[in-house]
């Protein structure tokens, strides 16, 4: 620059002239390759918002944009160091009830809530008024325009199917945050499928979506949504292959989650009182582990692959989570072969009673046999292997017609031979010779098996009077049962 000093003075003057408040900045002149360069650093201010020529702006990625009305409200709250749920709702504590909150709080904490707790939890302020958090947990909830949840089951893979029927179900819920949580999860369960197969150790269940993931996503959407926005709502959209939950408001830090390390996101709570109470009731963790739990719940599934990894996306206006249907390929295969009624006719009301390959698991050919009978009778009696069956229970069909269909060999799943069970029982018995008492966790390490598999084996050994359980839950131990003389 020809006159860096003069230019820097001009810039400094304009900063003071054009901004509504003092801007903490550092302006310096540096030499680089015998040239003078002006370096300007603007530090984040504590008194948001800052107006430039009577307009407020925010950064959106690499660009600067005008703030919307709700964004301006949030900037003002940040400047005052106040969260939305801490603000006075203008409603008296006696104007509403808390029956659902009191009931669930007792169930979750085993403690009865007292009037003094409403003050310590910041649900009621010193002016005897409900805070916005208090209104959120009240039976009335926030005004409808701030607390709606739109739930839709779409017909196909998008919102524009190839037929006239766009939605199979459409419900709008409004009310307290706990009511919305309950109804949102119910809607997803109603339109999800439970598939199962039976093997040597019992029944293995396969949900379309991991239960933990559903709970975490809905809780996060309700707790972290931007309640200053009255032009939007939480949307739950279920398609054939996925579930999408969209919540008003991006990340509290204004960052984009897709630009961050998804497994290492710092905890920033837009609604601190609400988050604290949901933590007390064991609906969520304070340590920002919700996203990690969603991903891990998928990774724990036998059907998981990288193609099923949940997707997180945010802008300055919304936060979206996309969960993939783990059973979609099976559903698609079933749908391509036949309609539900045709499948029901084929598999439940078989025209050939002698066809043992289509015998449903629910109609065992030998009800009196308490041993581990194969789920499907093999056409080859000499075949000692067990061919699994998969039961698909469609909640929507259950509600409409209360019918259950059993599908055979849908996914070509195979289970191990009965010798596998015998070998592991022998290993446990051998382990017990040097360990009079042992826990299931020790067997997991010893046999290098999953927790669910070990529990099934131990349960079988208890039924066969080989071992005896002692204690409950995490403290439970087992010991070899001595034969009676």
TrEMBL record:
Q: What Pfam families is this protein classified in?
A: HATPase_c_4 (PF13749)
Where is the stretch described as Disordered? 351-384
Concerning InterPro entries, the annotation shows:
RecG_C_sf (IPR038475), Schlafen_AlbA_2_dom_sf (IPR038461), WH-like_DNA-bd_sf (IPR036388)
The region annotated as signal peptide is none
Protein name as catalogued = Uncharacterized protein
